[in-house]
Design a protein that fits this description.
single chain, 554 residues, mainly beta, Immunoglobulin-like, 7-stranded mixed beta sheet, 6-stranded mixed beta sheet, 5 helices, 36 strands, 7% helix, binds CU-O-CU linkage
């Protein structure tokens, strides 16, 4: 195997991404979106990661499976203690996923929203390419305030009794935003960057990798005058599927092919931001911000000052249904037996007990259609500054009981069991759910009025596999989810994976605010499997360094 060695130092420096200057995070004083990992399948990645921030942090490589290297997965308090200021941690793992589009991001509190996020492209040198060139478009949201300030506001019931997520000030396409600063108050304006320009060869097929690296925003993505042919979903190649417009939720990736054989000229690339669901219009936006982001598709040779073509409006948004996407590499999902595990994941956002914080409470139960008894219920705040990582606790203790670290909601899985999870969404907004350490099958997705009406038999021949799935909003109007008789409608997905990858794997809503409010559980996969993982001393050293940093009172 080839080893790719990188020296990365997390730094905090002044950045002007959208016409407003702010301190933001990056790597080696370069913004995250410009800090690429480009590798081949099978490569070994070694990142010497030094934390030059004044706060702890950690990195996660979204979509990497970390087979045998669970300690390299990154979530603070789960698989490692956060890297204290001044410390170095070496992320060292092999790429065991398929070739495709991935990304890396901080996994400590809200650092991702401050800019610690970027692309991770895995190529297969033996791939027979059906395209001539490729490009990447990273779509994200952008806040003008530091995430810690926003998080403090969000989690405090006194300042935010409604539990509303802070709404982004702006949006970015490959790190470039368009904030009309002169219309806004209380913002110091910098030079407004030009929209991002993607030059493409004429008369060719171009693969565009679309990555949503946002904290909160989902996007409706389209290119004027061009059809999009979806060929990749979260690192899984799929049979070509043509759409006019793509919905892409937080942390998801799609590759689309476009044919640059339209009239030679410039075209608008449209990335319309939304949150909640794509059919509800956005709430009021800060003055100066238009949530319809644009970039320019520039046919090579065409003058950049040539006005883009005006083309017919795209059709209204349609939910890109995972059920319509078929992986190229056929993998039949295993059939479950009664001894396999079926988990029901429900969640609500509420105050509980004496909490001063608004938190997201996942409720998870081992579920059978006959018996709806709750097995486990957790309260949590994922932002706990844990000085022990769950993986180390499990690894080191003979009699691990999932009772002592409230921030991580552990569920113990048994070896090679088939795990089905029904995620139920009683919220009038979509939630993008991600599971670490696995690519799962999406067996069903839709809306229902009762758990019993969720399908229980599935087409297992070759369901879509991915690592981040959108759970649809409940059918709703401004008064909330619709009632059907005395039953409330909800959105759901049914997903399946096999417990065959030892580690502690976080499952969470990838809306960063929700993750920080505790909308997360972790799978302890499996007790024996974890004890057999070789722990590097570095992991324990990192916890010790973090502990002494905390005690130093910084
Ligand atoms: Cu993108 Cu917990 O991960």
């Amino acid at each position: 195997t080839r080893t790719i060695s990188l020296n990365w130092t997390a730094t905090n420096f002044s950045q002007n991404l959208d016409g407003v200057e702010r301190y933001a995070l990056g790597i080696n004083n370069v913004p995250g979106h410009l800090t690429f990992i480009n590798a081949n399948v099978g490569d070994r990645i070694r990142i010497y990661f030094t934390n030059a921030l004044s706060e702890p942090t950690s990195l996660h490589f979204h979509g990497m499976l970390q087979n045998g290297t669970g300690f390299m997965d990154g979530p603070s308090g789960i698989t490692q203690c956060p890297v204290a200021p001044g410390q170095t941690y070496v992320y060292d793992f092999n790429i065991t996923t398929t070739a495709g589009t991935y990304w890396w991001h901080a996994h400590y509190r809200m650092h991702l929203a401050d800019g610690l996020r970027g692309p991770f492209i895995v190529s297969d040198p033996n791939e027979v390419k059906n395209y001539d060139s490729e490009a990447i478009l990273q779509l994200s949201d952008w806040y003008h305030d530091q995430s810690e300030n926003l998080l403090a506001w969000y989690l405090n019931n006194a300042t935010n009794p409604g539990g509303n997520e802070p709404v982004f000030d702006s949006g970015l396409v490959n790190g470039i935003g368009q904030f009309n600063c002169s219309q806004a108050e209380n913002v110091t304006c910098s030079i407004l960057p030009q929209p991002y320009i993607q030059t493409v060869p004429v008369g060719c097929t171009v693969r565009i990798r679309v990555v949503n690296t946002a904290a909160f925003a989902a996007f409706l993505f389209s290119i004027d005058g061009h059809e999009l042919t979806v060929i990749e979903v979260d690192g899984v190649l799929v049979q070509p599927y043509q759409v006019d417009m793509l919905t892409i939720n937080v942390a998801q990736r799609y590759s689309v092919l476009i044919t640059t054989s339209q009239a030679v000229g410039n075209y608008y690339i449209n990335a319309q931001m939304y949150h909640g669901d794509p059919w509800t219009s956005m709430p009021s936006m800060p003055a100066g911000f238009n949530p319809n982001l644009i970039a320019i598709l520039n046919y090579a040779g065409v003058n950049l000052s040539t006005a883009p073509f005006v083309t017919a409006a795209k059709q209204s948004p349609i939910f890109l249904d995972d059920m319509n996407l078929v992986p190229l590499q056929i993998i039949t999902a295993p059939d479950r037996s009664p001894s396999d595990t079926l988990l029901l994941f429900e969640f609500l956002f509420t105050m509980k007990g004496t909490d001063t914080y608004q938190r997201a409470y996942p409720t998870i139960s081992r579920y059978s259609r006959e018996n709806l008894a709750w097995m486990l219920q957790f309260s949590s705040s994922f932002t706990t500054n844990s000085s022990t990582a769950l993986l180390i606790d499990v690894h080191d203790s003979e009699d691990f009981q999932p009772t002592f670290e409230p921030s991580v909601n552990p569920i113990i899985l048994e070896k090679n069991k088939i795990i089905d999870i029904i995620i139920r969404n009683d919220d009038p907004g979509e939630h993008p759910f991600h599971i670490h350490g696995h690519v799962f099958w999406v067996l069903a997705s839709g809306v229902a009025t009762s758990l019993n009406s969720i399908p229980s038999t599935f087409d297992l021949s070759n369901p879509l596999r991915r690592d981040t799935v959108t759970v649809q909003a409940c059918p709703h109007d401004s008064n909330g989810c619709f009632q059907n008789g005395n039953q409330t409608s909800f959105g759901y997905v049914v997903i399946r994976f096999v417990a065959d990858n030892p580690g502690v794997w976080l499952m969470h809503c990838h809306i960063a605010w929700h993750m920080s409010a505790g909308l997360a559980i972790s799978f302890v996969e499996t007790l024996d499997g974890i004890r057999n993982l070789a722990v590097v001393d570095e992991v324990r050293d990192t916890c010790a360094a973090f502990e002494s940093w905390k005690n130093s009172g910084d």
